[in-house]
Each structure stands twice: as C-alpha cells, then as structure tokens.
Amino acid sequence: MAKSADPTQNGETVTAATESTPLLSAPESIATRPNGHAKPPHPNGHAAKPLDHDTQSPSPPSETEREGDAEEEERPMPTLQILLLCYASLAEPVAYFSIFPFINEMIFRLGDLPESSVGFWTGLIESLFSLVQMALMIFYGRAADRLGRKPVLVFSLAGISVATAMFGLSQNLWQMVLARCFAGCFAGSVVTIRTMIRGSLACPTDLNHAPGAFCHAPFFAQFPYALASFVAGALCLTSTLAAQIFLKETLQTAAQKSASDPKPAPPLTTWEVLTSPGVPTVLLIFGHTMFLALAYTAVSPLYQFTSIENGGLSFSDAQIAVFIAVAGVSQAAWMLIGFPPLQRWLGTGRLLRACVAFQPFFMAAYPLLNELRRHGYEKAFWGTLWPTLIIGSGVAMSFACVQLALNDISPSSAVLATVNALALTVNSGIRAFTPVAFTSLYAVGVKWGWADGHLIWFVLIAVAVALYVDCWFLPKAAEGNYGRKKVGGDGEGEAR
C-alpha cells in the first residue's frame, strides 16, 4: 500500500534547523512565529506537528512538556546577540553610502572627464555595488542555510571591510569600477540599514585647507580619498571582529542533533521556496515597500536643495542636515517606542496597512510645503514642516512589518535565510535603478515646469496608493496577530 503524503499518517517526524536568535531565524525545531507558537502544518510537510515516538501517533503535551514550554517562553531576550547583529548590519550601508560625499569629485579628478560626463560614471559606479550584490544574494542565503549563519556573516564582513578600504586607493576609473564590484561581492548577507560617512573625511585636493594632520601626510597627499574609505573599512572591520568573537551560531549542525532523531527531509530548493504559498505575494509587497522608500530617499534631498521657484525648498546644507537628523530621530522613536505596542495591538497586517494608508498624504505634503514658501507664508511653512516630518516618519514602521511578514510566511526555519536572500535580492535590484530613475524624473518635472515642478510627487502618491492596494492581499499566515488570544483550552486555534 502506498504511503500517505501526510507525514503524520506514516509515523514520521519532520524536523528542521533549530535557531536560538530570533533575528536570524525561528527559535524552535519547527517553523515558528515570533511569539513561540508553532505554525500550522504546511502543505509541503516541512512544519508538521511532533509525534510521540512510542505510540507513533499524536499525543497531548505532558505536564513536563508544558513546564518546558513555559520555561522556554520565559527565556530572556538575547540582548547582546541582537545588539551585535544590529552593529554588524551597519557594515553594508556604510560600504554603500560612504563614497557618496566625494565620488563626483573623485571621478572628475582621477578620470580626467568633462563635467558633463561625471553623472554617468557616478551612477554606474554607485549601481555596480547593488548589481553585483543582487547577483550573489541567493548564493549567500543558501550558504547560510547549509554552512551556518555565523561563518557566512563573518566572511562577508571581512571581505567588505577590505574592499571598502581599497576603494580610496583607486587611481583611475577602472580601478574604481573593480573596487566597487569587489565590495558588492561581499555584501550579500548583511541586512540593509542606511547610514553614511561624513564628507569631511575626504581630504581636499588643496592641502592648505586640509582639516587635520592626516591629510598633510605624503600618503594621503597621493591618495586624498583614502581616509574616508579607511574609516569606513575600519568600522566594518570592528563589526567583523565583534561577530567572530562574540556572536553565537544559531543554525543547529548535524553533530548537535540527537542520534535518535530521524533524518530530516532535504531542504527546499530556491524555486520551491519562491513558489511556496504566500511567499510571492509577500515578496511583492516587500519589493513595493522598498521601491517607494528608495524613491522617496533619492528625491527628498534633491527637493530640499532645489530652489523654491523650481518646486523645492531652497534649504542650505545645514538645514538639510537638520531635516535628515530630525527624520532619523523620529523614525527611531517610532520604531523603538511606537512599533512594539502598536504591533501587539493591531497585528502586523493592520499596522502595515495603516502606515501605507498615511503615505499618500505624507507625499502630498511636500508640494504643499513648497507652495507655502512660494507664496510667502513662512510661519505656516515652518509650522507645518516639523509636525509633518515627525508624524510622517512613522511610516518607517512598515519596514519592520514587511520583515515580520517575510519571517512568518517562510515555509520552514531551515530556509528562512533563503527567503530573506530572495527579499534582499529584490531590494538590491530596486536599489540599482530606482534612485537614478526618480532623480531623472524629478529633473524632467522641473524642466517642464509641470504643476510648478511637482510631477514627481504625483508619481509617488500613485505608487503609494498602489502599495496600499497590494497590502490587502497580504496572506493570512503573515497577518501576525501575535498578541491576540487564541480560541480553545489548549492554546490552539485561530486568532480573533
């Protein structure tokens, strides 16, 4: 008689890799939700309910098991591990953004190009990092699933440390291109958080106006852009050392598994992960969210710099810095203070839709701010700007929501790194073309003078509305109603 496809009918136990750090993967031997409750059995059989080995049939949890579950739920959060992961995650964005303050001047000087050609090479060199990163992202995810999270992360951090420092030693365009591609090769396993190195760390070509003793050294006279690259590389190196020394591995190895455990099913292929129920939809929503965020990030500084007559705010460098600082502090406050209780109260899906529903109004505020300045309403402008920026920064909670949705929709904890690799591949592809596309569109709108130069904001509003529609298709398994009571005396059942 043929065996049933359901492992619970054949007396089999399906296991997966065990994780101990929630930021890297689920904490149980089967796919779990962030609150520790097991996911319902997945149609592909990779997250089945454990069976009693003596009776070969499902059995209710014993008193000892209940006590063990309670002890597991009371386990304190691994704060040090989470902080180490946060610090390690700084390496990739530092490597990506550290060249932005000086790349134009570097290309102009070392490339011996006319000023009109600098923009093309700048866009090419900036994009190469993300293009190479995108090509290797899935490879890093699969390697992390097979070899372990820690060795892959440390390898990536070490490589990106060296590659970032090397960029400042480039003496011509092709060396810059190769150094940038080299950095992208090692950026495949680091979670993206935006940051940048101050432009003042690049030594000026006129050493009479150099800010410090470093720039007077003969070495930095020959390589004036090396200091900024070395500082960025050093920061990446410190995260490498911290990860190597203090970070704990979270993927259970074969030697750590009990000899009595049955051989686990082979891991899903990348295509099987990609076509698992709900995964394509969540990846689409994730990509749409990142697309809107990157488009806004590219346009916002340009809008602040542009003259009032052309649809901008005519901000000085200092005002732009204050704007960015206030936005950063506001986003951090929303994420640290607002997100946890709101997510417990609303659930992931509802909070995501609430954030996205506000985004069209947030985008619409920018042309309004320009019109206030254009018509001389300065008090109204400043009175509107800061509340809009502080409250509007709350839309950043959507980033955490889509990340939780990715974790929830993963078919198994054993392929969680692959799911995240797919998401980061999408993100890298978007990051490779979105800034150039939207800054060019902004320039076209200003050149045409359409709607007082506000064409870009109408496009962003349309993108935000489309994202809101997409969010209504979020799979039920990714709604994330963790804080809601369960129906049934044994703690199982649908969330209310």
From TrEMBL:
Bias (Polar residues) ranges: 1-23
A Pfam family of this chain: MFS_1
Gene Ontology molecular function: transmembrane transporter activity
Principal location class: membrane
Region (Disordered): 1-75
Membrane topology (UniProt): Multi-pass membrane protein
Keyword Nucleotide-binding attached: no
A GO cellular-component term linked to this record: membrane
Domain of life: Eukaryota
Membrane spanning residue stretches: 82-103, 118-140, 152-170, 226-247, 281-299, 319-339, 351-369, 381-402, 414-434, 454-475
Entry keywords, A to Z: Membrane, Transmembrane, Transmembrane helix, Transport
Location in the cell: Membrane
InterPro entries for the chain: MFS, MFS_trans_sf
Keyword Transmembrane: yes
Protein's name in the database: Major facilitator superfamily (MFS) profile domain-containing protein
Organism in which the protein naturally occurs: Friedmanniomyces endolithicus
Lineage of the species this protein comes from: Eukaryota, Fungi, Dikarya, Ascomycota, Pezizomycotina
